[in-house]
Amino acid sequence: MTPRPPLDEILSLLGATLAAEGITTDDGAGAGDSFIDAGLKGAGDNSFVSMLAVLYPGDPRQVDSKDITAFNDGTGEVTLAGAYKGVVAAIPAGVPYKIVTFRFVPAEVAALTALVNALATDIEGATGIFHEQAAVPF
Predict the structure, then answer these.
(1) Could you tell me if 97 and 54 are in contact, meaning their C-beta atoms sit under 8 angstroms apart?
(2) What's the pLDDT score for residue 26?
(3) How far apart are CA 27 and CA 19, in angstroms?
(4) Phi, psi of 55 (to 5 degrees)
(5) Of 59 and 110, which is predicted with more confidence?
(6) Which is nearest to 40 in space by CA: 57, 61, 19?
(7) What are the b/e assignments for 101-117, b being 16+ CB within 10 Å?
């Protein structure tokens, strides 16, 4: 069994993944795709773009994460890639959040599957390196 790293190493790594954390101080846009924290003012225009915002209003079933698409340095407004939980309603003041330095890039599985199927179907009519290979069942 591989030994676990020391606790201080784990905590250091965890701390390095957090760009910011706080509680929203004002209502975000009515579209539900932004939140405001005055504590973020002065962090630098677009300093959180391409990071991931995680909102957790106290109920584990209400946790949601969205890619950050813009940040307003003057207001502390963080703009998200879509509405929180898909609901068009302002994210209110008082919601805890974290901004992490990485984001999950969802694979477009349906598009990739369609492409693989199209390639597999079209192999017989393919040219180039594929046209000389023997048919090999998958």
Answers:
(1) yes
(2) 97
(3) 21
(4) -105, 130
(5) 59
(6) 19
(7) eeeeeeeeeeeeeeeee
Measured between alpha carbons, how far apart are the two ends of the chain, in Å?
36
Specify the DSSP element, H or E, that contains 114: helix 109-121
Could you tell me if 51 and 103 are in contact, meaning their C-beta atoms sit under 8 angstroms apart? Answer: yes
Q: pTM (2 decimals)? A: 0.67
pLDDT tens per residue, range 51-94: 989 999 878 788 888 999 999 999 999 999 999 988 999 999 99
Backbone angles phi and psi of 56, in degrees to 5:
-140, 90
Q: Please, how many CA atoms are within 13 Å of residue 95, restricted to the half-sphere of its CB? A: 24
Cα gap 55→33, rounded to integer Å = 12
Note whether 90 and 32 are within 8 A (CB). yes
In the structure encoding, which two tokens stand for residue 50, read together?
Answer: 């391409």
How many C-beta neighbours within 10 Å does residue 49 have?
Answer: 13
**Nearest CA-CA partner of 53 in 16, 88, 83:** 83
Is the separation of the CB atoms in 30 and 89 below 8 Å?
A: yes
